[in-house]
TrEMBL record:
Protein name per UniProt: Ras-related protein Rab7
Family: Belongs to the small GTPase superfamily. Rab family.
SUPFAM superfamilies, alphabetized: P-loop containing nucleoside triphosphate hydrolases
InterPro entries xrefs: P-loop_NTPase (IPR027417), Small_GTP-bd (IPR005225), Small_GTPase (IPR001806)
Topology of the protein relative to the lipid bilayer: Lipid-anchor
Organism: Nepenthes gracilis (Slender pitcher plant)
């Protein structure tokens, strides 16, 4: 049986507070959703092993706080990222308009070696809300924006019922794999990422 080498792939999830970043991560990793809202403090991450062609990869998914006061913590979180996920709420025009700010912030903080070709994935979340009647950002508009930024992959999801979450993260993993370092990386169980980071309960950002 061929040996299986584990590679760490770092994924960053960005977007305004409340768009569902934590919920997406928890739905993908733990297949769980809660209506309880609790803002992420600083950053948190979960890991999930994925397998491609008999090779194991560990996705390290970082969920960063959407509040502006935490953006100054960005450099430590963003550096070494293999893929960046930009999330907005299809029911919030402001969260969509801010995608460009988050993208630019990431490129500044992470300083990828090839910014023009760095892999991004855009997720329009909360398509389940009010049966879609509260929606204000059309799929056409979102896809047009993604096209203008180098044909970024785009998914519409519901972190609540799981719609397209698995598909989106499969794309994220493949994009991360393309740019990821082909080496084994040791990761301790816990990381003190910031002095004001605090342990988080099971509450999540919905």
């Amino acid at each position: 049986m061929p040996s299986r080498r584990r590679t760490l792939l770092k994924v960053i999830i960005l977007g305004d507070s409340g768009v569902g970043k934590t919920s997406l991560m928890n739905q993908y990793v733990n297949k769980k959703f809660t209506n309880q809202y609790k803002a992420t403090i600083g950053a948190d991450f979960l890991t999930k092993e994925v397998q491609f062609e008999d090779r194991l990869f560990t996705l390290q998914i970082w969920d960063t706080a959407g509040q502006e006061r935490f953006q100054s913590l960005g450099v430590a979180f963003y550096r070494g990222a293999d893929c960046c996920v930009l999330v907005y709420d299809v029911n919030s025009a402001k969260s969509f308009d801010n995608l460009n700010n988050w993208r630019e912030e990431f490129l500044i903080q992470a300083s990828p070696s090839d910014p023009e070709n760095f892999p991004f994935v855009v997720i329009g979340n909360k398509i389940d809300v009010d049966g879609g009647n509260s929606r204000v950002v059309s799929e056409k508009k979102a896809r047009a924006w993604c096209g203008s930024k180098g044909n970024i992959s785009y998914f519409e999801t519901s972190a609540k019922d799981g719609t397209n979450v698995e598909e989106a993260f499969q794309c994220i993993a493949k994009n991360a794999l393309k740019s990821g370092e082909e080496e084994e990386i040791y990761l301790p169980d816990t990381i003190d990422v910031a002095s004001n980071s605090q342990p988080r309960s099971s509450g999540c950002e919905c």
